[in-house]
Write a structure and sequence with these properties.
The protein is α/β, with parallel strands linked by helices. It contains 19 helices and 12 strands. Bound molecules: adenosine-5'-diphosphate and magnesium ion.
Length: 588
């Protein structure tokens, strides 16, 4: 398959996860810098407060002039009051840039999903891709928000506090630099056991979600066979597990919270007493105010440090998500359309010249030596047992896959040199499973054709034998078609898809077993609709039922990827070859 991994546009996330993250936030760097600046100012009370308290205490104890106290109080009051507007400003700056970057990442992912080849999509589960666009981006957003919120808080407290202590009581700096990391390490140890329990609990909850999903999907089967009790018992197990791991987690949480609270406060009291003794004996010229300040600073800085360290799992999870997203953004399985000739019109002549295709190097050829020349307006039916390569031929024609040997000419031009996206404006594909999306009948029929007027839509519906039932739907054209067309019958959905194909007025029509899932009554209606659809267009149709095949200009019989015989129905029957045998085996 044609591929290219040249970086393109703003959504390239090459290199390491950190670099990728940097590139993602590059357009928002000024907002982020602004957020940091605003944060430092708004957060300053946390490390200034102990200083102010110290001034106040000293004013009282040492009977200093009151003016100093008033100034300190005034300053801190002012900073406290402006905290509200500053905080809002900060949220606006930080979350504004995070949400914007997240949206850009999501949009880049969606764009990329549209560019990746059908082969890539066949290999990759839709659920996984969904998780990347929804959950991974969310995780990245959370990581940046949390590290900024808590990380900045902790860093400002530490730096500010150290500065204050350094100025007021530098003798304590070495002592603090030992106690603070020690205390936070201890806290972290307790918390790390929490993480494991959190993980177990999360897995149990995920398991529960999967079970509930499974249960709801099975409800028609369960209820139809009176197996409700059985299904509920299957749930009980899972529910019990969530209960016990939840309780275990709660207990542990309680224990950790209480222990760290007790520990931190004991540490505080010890430190307070120690510094009080130092002040009392007048060893280092420490004042009563200094004692208060130091003990306040000790608690805030140990918690800050612990906070910083607890960010590690958040960051590693976030970086993992960045990696997961860049996997998609850097996947090389692109459909290579850049710089190729745009198609501005299609007559409908198709020529396969000794085309071969293998899905990968190790596999045998799914189609080989396929040679066929089709005139504009001709209808070609492909028949053959399942696995014969019929769908592969159609996918080659759509350009979902490319020949590994030979070539396909469209109106005499090699398809390899064409911009497939422009070429596909002239084709319509009706697959076996009619795919409708959550929207109205009108939106589904006019998908990709916003300019289609009512008259055109109704004409398409009429030709598709769908107008009658659409007019009987409440709301008519505006009637909602539920997700995947749940409340329409298979035949009705298929006729809506045919109306969609008709409205596009394609030059090239591709039908892959479009009628094989239908009952005979709706098949007759679909059949009529198809007959109208086929008229005047080059058509490739794969069908099992004879009616569709009968009317084809030529029938191509395939087996094991190769053409066995070609000819119109009557001639092939007369020849008494593979088609005649196939026909005798499946009289329809
Ligand atoms: N996406 C795919 N990846 C790998 N092999 C495939 C893929 N699609 C089809 N094949 C293989 O190619 C051969 C032809 O398949 P296909 O064209 O779908 O046959 P048909 O439509 O006639 O039933 C089969 O052997 C099938 O297993
Ligand atoms: Mg098939």
């Amino acid at each position: 398959m044609a591929s290219s991994d040249t970086p393109r546009g703003h959504h390239d996330l090459g290199g390491g996860a950190l670099r990728a993250l940097g590139r993602l936030f590059r357009p928002h760097r000024w907002r982020l810098c602004g957020a940091v600046g605003v944060f430092v100012v708004k957060h300053s009370p946390v490390w200034l407060l102990p200083l102010v308290t110290a001034t106040i205490v000293d004013t009282v104890v040492l009977r200093l002039p009151l003016a100093g106290m008033w100034v300190a109080t005034g300053v801190i009051m002012l900073i406290l009051v402006v905290n509200y507007p500053l905080h809002l400003f900060y949220v606006r700056l930080l979350h504004g840039s995070v949400r914007r970057a997240g949206t850009e990442l999501r949009s880049a992912l969606c764009t990329r999903l549209q560019e990746l080849s059908i082969g890539y999509h066949n290999r990759t589960s839709a659920g996984v891709l969904q998780a990347k666009v929804v959950r991974d981006v969310e995780t990245v957003e959370q990581m940046v928000q949390q590290t900024t919120d808590s990380g900045l808080g902790a860093v400002t407290v530490l730096v500010g506090g150290l500065a204050v202590v350094g100025v007021r009581a530098p003798q304590f700096l070495p002592l603090l630099s030992v106690i603070v990391p020690l205390a936070s390490l201890l806290l972290l140890r307790v918390r790390s056991s929490l993480r494991d329990h959190n993980e177990v609990f999360r897995q149990d909850v995920e398991h529960l979600a999967a079970r509930v999903n499974e249960m709801t999907q099975l409800i028609p089967v369960t209820r139809a066979h009176g197996l409700e009790g059985h299904a509920l018992r299957r749930m009980d197990d899972t529910l019990r597990r969530v209960l016990s791991s939840g309780l275990r987690l709660d207990l542990l949480n309680g224990r950790v919270a209480s222990l760290s609270w007790v520990f931190l406060n004991i540490l505080g009291v010890v430190f307070l007493t120690a510094s009080a003794l130092i002040a009392y004996w007048g060893v280092w010229g420490i004042t009563a105010g200094d004692v208060v300040m130091l003990s306040a600073f000790l608690t805030t800085s140990t918690t800050s440090l612990a906070m910083l360290m607890s960010l590690a799992p958040v960051i590693s999870k976030g970086l993992e998500s960045v990696r997961s997203a860049s996997e998609v953004l850097r996947a090389p399985a692109l459909e290579d359309n850049t710089g190729k000739a745009e198609v501005s019109g299609v007559r409908g002549a198709v020529e396969f010249q000794a085309v071969g295709h293998a899905y990968d190097e190790t596999r045998r050829l799914a189609v080989r030596d396929f040679t066929l020349s089709v005139a504009p307006g001709e209808t070609i039916a492909l028949v053959g047992p399942s696995g014969a390569g019929k769908s592969t031929v159609l996918n080659l024609l759509i350009g979902f896959i490319r020949p590994v040997s030979g070539r396909i000419l469209l109106d005499g031009v090699d398809m390899a040199g064409l911009d497939l996206r422009t070429y596909r404006r002239f084709i319509s594909v009706v697959p076996q499973e009619p795919i409708l999306f959550d929207g109205t009948v009108r939106e589904n029929v006019a998908f990709g054709m916003p300019d289609a007027d009512d008259a055109a839509i109704r004409a398409a519906l009429r030709d598709a034998n769908a107008l009658d039932f659409v007019d009987h739907l409440p709301g008519g054209l505006e009637a909602p078609v539920a997700d995947r067309g749940a409340h329409l019958s298979g035949g009705q959905r298929q006729r809506l898809v045919i109306a969609r194909a008709l409205l596009r007025d394609p030059r090239l029509l591709i039908l892959d077993e479009a009628t094989s899932a239908l009952d005979t009554r709706s098949e007759a209606l679909v059949q009529q609709a198809l007959a109208r659809l086929v008229r005047g267009r080059t058509t490739f149709v794969v069908a099992h039922r004879l009616a569709t095949i009968h009317n084809a200009d030529r029938i191509v019989v395939m087996r094991d990827g190769a053409i066995q015989e070609i000819g119109p129905h009557d001639e092939l029957l007369r020849r008494d070859g593979p088609y005649a045998r196939l026909h005798a085996g499946h009289p329809v």
